[in-house]
Amino acid sequence: MKRKIIAGNWKMYKTMTDGLAFLDAFVPRCHREMMEKCSLILAPNFTLLASMAARCREAGIALAAQNCHPGGEGAYTGETSLAMLVDVGVSHVLVGHSERRALFGEQDNFLNQKVKAVLAAGLVPILCVGETLAQREADAAGTVVEKQLRQGLDEVVPDGRLMIAYEPVWAIGTGKTATVDDARSMHQFIRQCLRSLAVDGKGEDVPILYGGSVKPANAPGLLAEDEINGVLVGGASLNPEDFARIAESV
Ligand code: PGA
């Protein structure tokens, strides 16, 4: 069995003290069986990355950034380069989270630059895609997700160096999860898109995560699906016990 990916996105929550307290509570719960079945990733805020890096490395937890700038160093006030992220021990970068798209106006072509830059830096981009409620109700979920994939992965041949997170916008932070059937069928659709963009069957190697109100109660059903290679967890990843229960449900 391939290990399931359990990723936590802390968004703009937790100070450095909170982050280290989380590790104090969470790391002792990462027993061998859990670590054999799961790959754990945490995406704390930028200000926590450096202080969490050594302890995450020792515990076998990969560290992700929630965002990056695609350029090298330069006059980009408020931005963080990939060289800076590599320097503090980051291995994965979230790209195009729906909050970046909706609140900060990030467009597919800019996200494509980020995906390429993350790959060029030798890190793993986790490209987030997903439709809004209006788009789903207009029967446009597939079209929207396919466009996000094609544009986000323009000139990128998808393979095991990257991950996709399917996060229906209407399920994020709302307590509404996609049904297992909805998630499975969208994951199958994303897999088809990846196959058509990939060469030599490498589209099979791209892990596809589900995100949107994943909790200890619904994680077992989602993670039991072959098509769901892991989960991207927001709210429930802030609590060490809940996050551990999600990983234990694999
Ligand atoms: P949620 O967030 O689990 O709180 O819905 C998921 C995400 O935004 O990645």
Report on this model:
By secondary structure, the protein is an alpha/beta fold. The chain has helices at 16-26, 32-37, 46-59, 82-88, 98-104, 108-120, 133-137, 141-152, 180-197, 219-223, 240-248, and strands at 4-9, 38-43, 61-65, 92-95, 124-129, 163-166, 208-211, 230-233. The chain has one domain: Aldolase class I (TIM Barrel, Alpha-Beta Barrel), CATH 3.20.20. The mean pLDDT is 97. An 8-stranded parallel β-barrel has the order 1-2-3-4-5-6-7-8, surrounded by 5 helices. The longest helix is centred in the C-terminal third of the chain and has 18 residues, at 180-197. The chain contains 11 helices and 8 strands. The structure holds 2-phosphoglycolic acid.
CATH superfamily: Aldolase class I
Count of individual domains: 1
Q: Helical proportion?
A: 40-55%
The DSSP helix count reads 11
Q: What CATH architecture would you give?
A: Alpha-Beta Barrel
Structural class: alpha/beta
CATH class: Alpha Beta
Instruction: Give me the count of strands.
Output: 8
Mean pLDDT equals 97
- Please give the radius of gyration in angstroms: 17 Å
Strand content: 15-25%
Q: Could you list the spans in which at least 5 consecutive residues all have pLDDT below 50?
A: none
**Distinct ligand kinds:** 2-phosphoglycolic acid
Overall 3D shape: globular
Gap from first CA to last CA:
11 Å
Please summarize the sheet with the most strands. Answer: 8 strands, parallel, barrel
Compressed to H and E, one letter per element, the order equals: EHHEHEHEHHEHHEHEHEH
Strand order of the largest sheet: 1-2-3-4-5-6-7-8
